Amino acid sequence: MHEIMQEGYRQEHRLLCESLDRFLTAQYSFDQRRKMLAADKGFNREIWRSFGDLGLLALPFESRYGGLEADGISTLIVMQAFGRALVLEPYVPCIVLSGELLSQGAGEELKCELIPKIITGETVCATAFAEAGSRYNLANVAVTAQRRSRGYVINGRKAVVFGAPFADRLFITARTAGGLYDRAGITVFALSAAADGMTRRDYTTVDGMAASEVEFRDVVVAENAVVGTVDAGFDLIEGAVDVATAAVCAEAVGIMGALFARTQEHVRSRIAFGKRLSEFQVIRHRLVDMRLAFEYASAISLRAAEDSRGAGSRRAMSVSAAKALVGREMGSVGKAAVQLHGAMGLTDELDVGHFFKRLTTIQMSFGNVDYHLRRLAWFHARGQDELEVAR
Asked: Phi and psi for 21 in degrees, rounded to 5?
């Protein structure tokens, strides 16, 4: 099911969708994915370089650094295709999240150094912003960066840093001023993944992705490691996380489309009590519910992709609305797919269970449904207050 192939999209979007689907069908089948997961722990350098050859690693970057300056719809297409193929490589941590920090906050020297190497697949980046107990609050930053002569000394721990086991560079948030929950006083730093004093504990998450717990003990970084402005990094990391949230919403839509197609095929071929499962009315109702959930999620994910690179409350409200709705609908689609496949729905040999695990992880990534409903309500209330003041 090709979610993006709708009337009104530009020719380059259609070509990107078709070429990416051809590549993933040939190089990233479910069996090939399982072999890669066993052999490479979720990151295949050859596949990553192929993504570079296809231009996928260049999508968000400016043309003067070798990028393609693609819009949010191009990222949507890529993430939907990656969802259908259950791609393991750290595209969101490196290209979407770290790429947004680079593009919006880094100075010219760092951009010229990193972006060309990212585009060719030579350098992989990851972003460490979450901490134990932070509960999706980007301002809950306990990692400290204390000013020293000609630089900073960083101490603390970051949790669940996706893509860190393969990263050459890390972007991290650290507190340079203020209290624990203050938005002011947060600074974004770029540092080598091999920096003295930094240690990692790598592990594989339930959906097959790779992540790390990262500890910093007196890690010294130079002044030019600052990305953006000192003490004013909250808006930068919030904007990057919103772009990444829109991306995983698109990935979830791709997975939902794949689950619906597989479930529909299964019930049409499976026989019970002398009839195909698809002939039972209750099964038909479940399929209709799955299709409607997919359509709702697809539409709002598209809106979030269009608004994600904007600014202010419109971006935040669009992304949070998408994550809340997609998070709710992906749960119903995933459960229905597993239930309609019966006992084999969660076996390792069937891809349905792997899709379900990935959806479960996406539900909790960058904020769950409750978090984004609260965030949406907060921005809505603030918008009403601003409207009253304007009147």
From this structure: -65, -40
